[in-house]
Amino acid sequence: MTPAPLTTRTRTAWSPAPGRPTWGIVLGDAVRAAALVSVLVAAATSDGVAVALFALVLGGSMVPRAAGAPAWLDVTCGTVMLAAAWCAVAGLYERVEGLDLLVHAVATGALAALAHQVLTRGGVAVSPVRHRATAALTTAGLGVLLAVVWELLEAAGHTFVDDSIHVTYPDTVGDLAAALAGSVAAALLVAGVAARTPARGLP
């Protein structure tokens, strides 16, 4: 069988999920536009680290739309990633006690739910509608994995890019604990949403 043209496959991957509300598309794309503006602002006013950070956020904000994520997850992921980046650039993590842990919990939870959505759409993970417990465990595991990878990237950034990146043992342990809490919350949310979702047409 001849594979579909690349443009067709791309258009299909970028199509909104069936029944996706217009407000979700508009708000999600507004967040992506804000991420693009942030890249331009950082390029004009800040250093290369800030530009790379916002470029990462911009790329990440494309994933929920391409993965056909629900509107609430699309908007949440994009907003959380963008807010986390601005907090870092503005130095708020150093000035507001506990903000770092809060952002780690919320961001890891949102990204864990998104990662499960991506794997489900790709046929790698089971549908949460039919296998809620498995989906919840997978979501929690993905969140923990993402948190560990992030801490490794922070350590590498501190060593090879910018030694002002805050990396200490208590900070790392606290971040991982917050990420675990966020991952568990995301797992419960995925299972809870699935419990109220009809199973028609899902594997």
TrEMBL record:
TM ranges are 33-59, 71-93, 131-153, 173-195
Q: Could you identify this protein by its name? A: Uncharacterized protein
Task: Provide this UniProt record's keywords sorted from A to Z.
Answer: Membrane, Transmembrane, Transmembrane helix
Which InterPro entries does this one have? YjdF-like
User: What species is this protein from?
Assistant: Krasilnikoviella flava
